[in-house]
Design a protein that fits this description.
The protein is an alpha/beta fold. It has 11 helices and 13 strands.
Amino acid sequence: MDTELARTFLEIVSTGSFVRAAERLNVSQTAVSARVRSLEAQLGRPVFLRNKAGAALTPAGEKFLRYAPTIIQMWERARHDIAVPAGRRALLAVGGELSLWNPLLLNWLLWMREFASDVALRAQVATQETLTRQVAEGVLDFAIMYGPQIQPGLTVEQVLDEKLVLVSTDPSQSAKEDAGYVYIDWGPEFAMQHGVSFPDRASPTLLMGLGPLGLSYILDCGGSGYFRMSSVRPYLVSGRLSLVADAPEFPYPAYVVYATRGNLRLLTQALDGLRHVAGRL
């Protein structure tokens, strides 16, 4: 069976709609429909009932749902193992959210280069949703993210006790001053905590959805904002930024998500390295 048929099937189940599945797969709705027809032809049974609300599983679809993830995992694991470059004992594929690449995963890559130089590495940046799905499917061996989704078969472990701190290019600034303040969207939990601490900043004049972008902005233009301590520490040491002394700090832990399958010895070594570099941040 073409694994794309199983992927498309799972995407429709996840989104509840042929249209939304097509958007997430970046293909046309016609292509999605054609894949479903091909799948149903191979199974000899319809797997979806389409209605105004979207798509619902038939009894046959419910049964196929038990097998579809395994089909993808087995194929990805086979492709993963066969694709090991010459001269390397294994291949490790990892991913992370953009904000976590520097310094956490960058330091981990350097650690692997020193202590596991015979392992080939593949690293990518993606959204939390994509990373979780790829770990579940076996495309990635592990992924680093904030606020992971708990799924059957996946292990979630906190690796970084990060916190968000308010920093400013003006050493004399207090938490009550909002001149030049940049609001960074660190997710719903941060938004709730921020709203309680700063009820007068419900409608910020400048909002950014990416921490590194906001940090570059205030370093160039001046201002203040909440950022991860690990990312601003070098600027605090150099004096380019200062902690706003009377401002609250907010927890923002990072997690590693992995499945215990494949080369467990290699995975254990890689995770030990990740814990080591995280402990030094």
